[in-house]
Write a structure and sequence with these properties.
It is built from 17 helices and 2 strands. It is mainly α. The protein has 2 domains: about 160 residues, no CATH class; about 150 residues, no CATH class. About 50% of the residues are buried. This is Ion-translocating oxidoreductase complex subunit D. It comes from Congregibacter brevis. The complex is composed of six subunits: RnfA, RnfB, RnfC, RnfD, RnfE and RnfG.
Length: about 350
Amino acid sequence: MSLLVVTSPHAHGPMSTSSVMRTVLLATLPGVIALTYYFGFGIVVNIVFGGAVALLCESLALLLRKQPLKPFLTDYSALVTSTLLCIALPPYAPWWLLVIGVGFSILIAKHLYGGLGYNPFNPAMVGYVVLLISFPLQMSTWAAPLGVGESVPGLLAALNACFNPGSFDAQTMATPLDLMRQNKGMLLSDLYAANPQFGAFQGVGWAGANAAFLLGGLFLLSKRVFTWHAPLAMLLALSLCALVFYDEGSSASGGSPLFHLFSGATMFGAFFILTDPVSSAVSNRGRLIFGAMIGVLIYTIRVRGNYPDAVAFAVLIANFAAPFIDNYTQPKVYGQRGGPTA
């Protein structure tokens, strides 16, 4: 009698690429709702239009590579990439900015390397950095949040800003991280008092958005989409750096730990960007190093660099280091005394 031989791993649940991607999209909802509340419908227009562009680019790439369309279009990976990129972009971005960013993320950062599972860098962050370097004015134009401006633009205004950007007129201002980076001579208490963008310890609207993305991240952790190692290591490293160099509010201070944790894309980056399973470290020990490295880089670039929010640059630099980290942190083979495996 012949025996059926089945090798490991053995699946114990209905886990698939499409189910994971749907769960990630669902987890972004609290953050998207918070951003919409504070900044208006620009984020929603970004996501919907960017998603359509992503599906078109994905179809084009699959046709050029002579791959079947349905399996790859229904795994939701293109929509996850475009959604993460469009959340990171300023609301009321012009249509051409979305097309360039999403197109670069899908066609170059993803498919040029072989498609899903082969990209060495986070595709959404590659597209973001390309836009940030190429179009710094458009990428720094953030609308005034609710609580600073009297109201936020509605859906029709958001559509007008996207498809007829020259006619869009709204109050825009620097983000709190940008104001902190540009501060050269004011005490933090004076900086906070002089700029309505600041709340008690963070920017108006940004704390709520970060708390919402934290909620979505905890949902992903509960579903075991990723482990806690990289996000926790990043948040702890960022907090430690801010705590060590915080001098209680002089002009040279880079901001308090709470300011850095709840400003910019901190929670969004911790739970939705650096947890990309393809471009991050694979072992738990490696993920701790990977996350801590990103936390240190975020603080360093925010305080000393030329860009106020450093999540994208920090993640891409860590993506470079991920293979090296993996080589020295992979688990030892049973019976091996030490050192990396061959």
